[in-house]
Design brief:
2 copies of one chain form a homodimer.
Chain A (H helix, E strand, L loop, with lengths): L14 H8 L2 H12 L5 E3 L9 H14 L2 E6 L2 E6 L1 H7 L3 H7 L9
Chain lengths: 110, 110
């Protein structure tokens, strides 16, 4: 079962749930941005600069976390998100590379 | 631009649109079933045996067609759907194999 923060174990991830999480343009852009960073890089939600409310942003990050795409880590008074690159690659080889290499159709954010 | 029947050219396909089409369990199952058949195999919509109305089924096949996942071909008084396997593979290598190899969470249909 998922841990206390809602992160599923790799064996609990399903491809369709990952694809559903990636179907949204904002969420796709989060994963694509993280995929383009160095392995293990973590970014705060705010750093993406999306023009949406904090609650909308929280919702999207929760969907990504519960699908297994990102791991959220506490950083004092903010939270940062890191791509679960190696775990996703082990379960669904090639998926992260496909997202990294294909624009999602949302304008690039600062 | 898409042809008269709504099939996009390979260059018009976007990964995110394909993922959004695959996010639905019924549509995922259609693509997974076709991916497991011989290359070029075409099946009628009815042959999948989904317990949904004809209009719902038409909607789902339209989404798959407009995303670029399937090609619909007329067969006299019915239509059959074939996976655009080679074209998808050329644009998004590995995607069809991932879907083929991972159950979508919908019970197998007859």
């Amino acid at each position: 079962m998922p841990d206390a923060e809602g992160h599923p174990a790799p064996a609990e991830m399903t491809l369709r749930t990952l694809l559903a999480a990636l179907a949204d343009p904002l969420r796709y852009e989060v994963v694509r941005s993280l995929a383009q960073e160095a392995d293990g890089a973590a970014r705060t939600c705010a750093s993406f600069g999306f023009p949406v409310s904090k609650s909308t942003l929280s919702h999207h990050f929760r969907v990504l976390r519960e699908a297994g795409l990102i791991r959220q880590v506490d950083r004092g008074n903010s939270r940062a998100a890191a791509l679960r690159r190696d775990e996703i690659e082990a379960r669904f080889p090639g998926l992260v590379g496909l997202v990294r290499d294909n624009p999602g159709g949302m304008a690039d954010t600062p």
